[in-house]
Amino acid sequence: MTDPTTLPAPVLDRAIGAVLGSAAGDALGAPYEFKPSLPDDVPVVFKAGGPWELGEWTDDTSMAVPILEALARGDSLADAAVLGRIAGAWKHWAVDAKDVGIQTRQVLAITTFEAGEPHSVAEADIRSAATRVHDSTGRSAGNGSLMRTGPVALGYLGDGQEQALADAARRVSALTHFETDAGDACVIWSLAIRHAIRTGTYDLRTAIDALPVERRARWHEFVDVAERTQPRDIPGSNGWVVAAMQAAWSAIHHAELAGEGLQQTLERAVRCGNDTDTVAAIAGSLAGAKWGGSAVPELWRRELHGWPGLRDDDLATLAVSATAAYGRRMERRAGA
Fold first, then answer.
1. Which of 39, 41, 134, 162 has CA 20 to 30 A from 314's CA?
2. What phi, psi does 239 have (nearest 5°)?
């Protein structure tokens, strides 16, 4: 595949799937959040629960939307002003959002809107805020940047775009998450999503090898643990980005071994307990990139909705626009 402006239908379906699969996992897991893990014989049901309506996505998808909208407009994630507008949208959303991650809320609270720009913050300002939060708490490797990274790959589907995608994923992560683990996880997952969209297959190991040499062995070991462990048995809190990624990959890996599809993958992810919506959203972005938007159950798609007043078709339209806008941007560069 060389031209993202003319994606084959299956590839386009998989690009849509990276977004819809994540939103579906998010909405499926929301009613189970902060509850104990579930055994295999207890069904996971698509339902309302807590503050969440049936099919309503949470902060996982809400924070991904401004990234997706930026890509759909043809904006570059290498542009500081674009990242400032994305962060500004997050800050507006957080004012009355039903749920905002603790670390993300702290960062956004000490970030200020730019003078004369009520819908934008300076990238340097929010990155500084993320550093201050890290310095005050001693840690900042929560799962809040990985949960929103699904759309990033849609801007980098063309040949030879792996390094540009890795740079963008890390830069978007660093807006709120200072620690290297968060950035590494976003790089790995975004590259794996890109590969799944382009080929219809999973390849997490090659994505890990895009990291600096000295960090690769550690991440390969994390994946080894995930592949021999069920999502609910992953060590550590899945609020930590590493454990969240392990739980998501465990669900994907074991579903693959069992010959299961997207729905069963997401159900496995939700059975992890605790941060169920986030783990399922993370799993859904990669599993959706393999299985496609067409694999999301129709019942779920009919009910999917959330901030800022979007539904499933809106997400799908934005995903299509993001791939087309990327192609147009590459054409402009070639003609410059």
1. 162
2. -75, -20
